[in-house]
Amino acid sequence: MTDRPLRVLIATDTFAPDVNGAAKFTTRLAARLTRRGHEVHVVASSLGRGRHGTHVEEHEGERFTVHRLRSLLYPGHEWLRFAEPWRMFSNAASLLDALRPDVVHFQSHIVLGRAFSIEAKKRGIRVIGTNHLMFENLMDHSNIPRALQGKTVDFAWRDAAKVLGRCDVVTTPTRRSADYLEKMTGLTGVHAISCGLPGDEYLPNPERQHGRIVFVGRVTSEKRLETLVRAVAKLPADLDWHLDIVGGGDQIDELAALARDLHVADRVTLTGYVSDEELRERLRSAEVFAMPSTAELQSIATMEAMATGLPVVAADAMALPHLVRDGANGWLFRPDDAADLAEKLERILRLSDEEYGKYRQHSLEMVAPHDIETTITAFERLYRGEDIRDPDTRVELSD
Question: Mean pLDDT throughout 235-244?
């Protein structure tokens, strides 16, 4: 199998500057492939009215071509845009004919993945599909009446099965999410390939930061942040704690009001959107990371915290048990149980320095196999049509 540079077309419904796990992964993927000498073309939604077209953009320190398509803002959403559906097939056909890529890798089947998978298969182009979605997780933002949401989710998974079924290979970030995807779609042979993390970009703080609890991510309903605010309000009075909720979203005002109602507003900071540099500093200033979400297919934010050497308290749901081992690098708590979350946070906050150091070391050991270069190598091999064994992210921890 030749190792010549590839021409890779990545089709994605969300891309930088969007702030979410799928956009972050796709941006890193494009940049790292470019760094390895491949010719990368990203097809994504425009950033707004009149901001479509083809440009060379710089992301993650690398320059590559991004084709921004005319797009629509999703009703009621502050940033989510979709390429105009009535143009998606003609756009896909013209770009594929002009670029003649070796492989198409789509990151969402909803709009662009749908069009590019159909048009690529017509042309005999290899198609890789990666799923970052749990439809159950999207209903709060869908504007769909609650009574219809169950049927909508069922329809969405059937539709996903059709689109993903056209792919030569389907991937998702963890084995648990791969099993879930196979269950919901009837697909088989889904590969579990971590989104990966550039671990050298995260630097643990040599000094323990007492009492600082941090969450990083979208401040939206699916992250279950109300549970976290209620949990910290239950912490014993003798603990000198402070909670940083780092990220933007539509729940900021609601959570601020809840903190006031629980009389902890002076100990809860909602930062809104921050730069990558400030995000890393917030992690370095923390003692423990909390992830109350129950619908994480991997959780890049949790891996970033682990790469910073933080113990983690996370919901025992979906893929988070892949990242947290009870009593080793943190604790899992019963989903949506604020009292159990408070009790697990207290365990970390009361650790001796020696015990805390072990948790910290175990977080670093457990995140190490998620190095992004392993992820990029796996995708390179899939792009070339090679059979692969999924990267093993299991770890034997030190004593």
Answer: 94
Together in a domain, 187 and 220: no
Residue 67 backbone zone (phi > 0: left; psi -120 to 50: alpha; other: beta): beta
The model's pLDDT over 74-111, given as tens digits with 9 standing for 90+, comes to: 766 666 788 889 999 999 999 999 999 999 999 989 89
Does some domain include residue 391? no
Phi, psi angle pair for 44, to nearest 5°: -145, 170
Other beta carbons within 10 angstroms of residue 227's beta carbon come to 22
User: Residue 259 belongs to what domain range?
Assistant: 199-369
Let me know if residue 325 belongs to a domain.
Answer: yes
The phi-psi region of residue 272 (left if phi > 0; otherwise alpha if psi is between -120 and 50; otherwise beta) is left
| pTM for this predicted structure | 0.89
> DSSP labels for 320-346?
GGGT--BTTTEEEE-TT-HHHHHHHHH
Q: Are residues 251 and 376 in the same domain?
A: no
Residue 231 has which token pair?
A: 């949990």
Contact 244, 272 (CB under 8 A): no
Q: How far is CA 80 from CA 20, 48, 111, 139, 194, in A?
A: 10, 10, 13, 14, 24
CATH of the domain at 335: 3.40.50.2000
> What residues contact residue 243 under an 8 Å CB cut-off, 6+ apart?
213, 214, 215, 228, 229, 232, 264, 267, 268, 269, 290
Q: How many domains are there within the chain?
A: 2
Phi, psi of 213 (to 5 degrees): -105, 140
Residues 6+ apart with CB under 8 A from 128: 103, 104, 105, 106, 167, 168, 169, 170, 171, 379, 382, 383
